[in-house]
UniProtKB/TrEMBL annotation:
Every FAD/NAD(P)-binding domain range: 56-384
Superkingdom of source: Eukaryota
GO molecular function, a single term: nucleotide binding
Name of protein: FAD-dependent pyridine nucleotide-disulfide oxidoreductase
Length: 523
């Protein structure tokens, strides 16, 4: 089984896609912009149902969750249903490539796609605006454009919230104030950068250039309450690799790196590890002479460095046997460059609607991605609430990878289709004695796939499902990981351009190895 999965990841999920005038080199012709009415292999059947009343589905968010949901909706819902994507950004960003932007391996333009150019071609309306008000009684979403067009109200039948996280830098004293985007730094001050957004990563690349001119220690980490840990390891190791390439061993020695993380151990990743993540990441940190502090809380970031509190296990002898206890220690880490992943919170707008979010602003959904309080509202992606895999000494959250976010979107759309079909059936019956059958809902199968590049090597972590217990826990390590990430980046951007994030060949090959996006709920 592992060998089959390994081959599949490289040849399919990591397929090297070369597009020339709409052709896939090495395969049969595939149009760069296929007809929007084309059915997928597992479409619910896109023929117009007699008596169907066209509906309007509004999707808020232009990231992986929003776009994969929109493209699934165009394939799975009725031809005459209207789909609108609302985003405060004019472009899609391939977030997994942000660490590359931060070391000049990619430019922002290479990982961005213009939404206004792509979405209308696939019969999806695009509104470049910020959502400012939600009226659940009237099913109205108010949006405000940056172009000065004023407010606009969108009437929806179904609303999908896929806005991603709000980056809560302000929860760590000094972190937000000293961020490169918010603060003019003196030459010898601690440069505080971020790689959470592509613009942030671009600033981080500029910070590295300045660090090379004025070398000093580096702190990279994920703070208490963070739920994204892979990028911290990727960035720390890429940074070490980049410094060696740009300078020499001497420059690397002048820029020692410390990793601080709220994880209970290296490679925990917020999900009790993935495959051999603990062994692989620990080995890589040791190999690159990177110090680390686990069970760590960041108490302050200032112009000289980072103050931390961490729990260190100490062996205590008792009359019966030795046991372990933890002691809290404090430490100040001098830093010339700091990159800390903040806690992820929900967009504040949604917190204004009673029952829509938890106390941190994350959308409360059931197993169908449906709001627990509003039946015609759904949540997809990083903005939804997921319980931690386990209680850790310092709070950690479960990561939401692009792989599982796509699966959430597929389940969401299939369940919207089920509700539409139910509504059409009720309208057709018009009989008080007619027997009502509950619609068949789908549940996303939340698998995890993480492809990482560490400079001269990488790793692929595949967990099926992502949360324990798992039936598959596979790790592939080496240069093949770097190659797979490069290929997957091109492949995913290609899927966005062509308007199909669940193409038939990927669906079929995934199914062959027992990986499906959704399953029908057992009633």
């Amino acid at each position: 089984m592992p060998s089959i999965l390994s081959l599949f990841i490289i040849l399919v999920l990591g397929i090297e896609v070369s597009v020339v005038d709409g052709f896939l080199v090495g395969t049969k012709f595939v149009s760069k912009y296929p007809p929007t009415t084309k059915l997928t292999a597992t479409s619910e059947g896109d023929t117009r149902k007699a008596g169907h009343s066209p509906k309007h589905v509004v999707i808020v968010g232009g990231g992986i969750g929003g776009l994969s949901t929109a493209f699934d909706a165009r394939h799975i819902l009725h031809k005459d249903d209207k789909i609108t994507v609302v985003s405060d950004r004019p472009h899609f960003e391939f977030t997994p490539s942000n660490p590359w932007v931060a070391i000049h391996k990619r430019t922002p333009q290479e990982i961005r796609l213009n939404l206004e150019a792509i979405l209308p071609h696939h019969n999806i309306d695009f509104v470049h605006a910020k959502a400012t008000r939600l009226d659940t009684e009237e099913n109205l979403l108010t949006v405000e454009s940056d172009t000065g067009d004023g407010n606009r109200k969108l009437q929806y039948d179904y609303l999908v919230i896929a806005t991603g996280p709000r980056l809560a830098f302000e929860e760590i004293p000094g972190l937000n104030e000293l961020r490169l985007e918010n603060h003019d730094l003196l030459h010898d001050e601690n440069i505080v950068a971020s790689i959470c957004e592509t613009d942030h990563a671009m600033h981080a690349a500029q910070a590295i250039d300045r660090l090379i001119q004025n070398p000093g220690p580096i702190v990279v980490g994920a703070v208490q309450g963070a739920s994204s840990f892979g990028p911290l390891y990727e960035y720390a190791l890429l940074l070490k690799y980049y410094l060696h390439k740009k300078g020499s061993a001497a420059l690397k020695e002048q820029c020692p790196i410390s990793v601080v993380t709220s994880e209970p151990y290296i490679g925990h990743l917020g999900l009790q590890g993935a495959g051999q993540s603990k062994e692989i990441l620990t080995k890589l940190l040791e190999k690159n002479n990177i110090d680390w502090y686990t069970n760590c809380k960041v108490s302050e970031v200032n112009k000289d460095g980072v103050k931390i509190e961490f729990h260190e296990e100490e062996q205590m002898e008792t009359s019966d046997s030795p046991n372990m206890m933890t002691g809290i220690k404090t430490k100040f880490l001098p830093s010339k460059l700091t990159m800390l992943i903040p806690p992820f919170r929900g967009v504040k707008l949604w917190q204004q609607t009673p029952g829509l979010t938890d106390d941190k602003g994350m959308i409360l959904v059931d197993q169908h991605q449906q709001s627990i309080s509003y039946p015609n509202i759904f949540g997809v992606g990083v903005c939804v609430h997921l319980d931690p895999v386990e209680k850790t000494l310092i709070p950690t959250g479960p990561p939401k990878t692009g792989y599982m976010i796509e699966f959430m979107g597929t389940a969401c759309v299939r369940n919207i289709r089920a509700l539409m079909d139910e509504s059409d059936s009720l309208q057709a019956e018009r009989s008080a004695t007619a027997e009502h059958t509950r619609p068949s809902f789908h549940v996303p199968i939340l698998n995890g796939l993480c492809i990482t590049d560490f400079g001269d090597e990488g790793a692929i972590f595949l967990t099926l499902p992502q949360m324990p217990p798992r039936r598959t826990d596979l790790t592939i390590e080496g240069k093949i990981g770097t190659m797979a990430k490069m290929a997957f980046e091109k492949y995913f951007l290609f899927k966005i351009q062509t308007g199909d994030t669940d193409p038939y060949y990927e669906k079929y090959l995934l199914h062959l190895i027992g990986v499906d996006r959704v399953e029908r709920e057992k009633i």
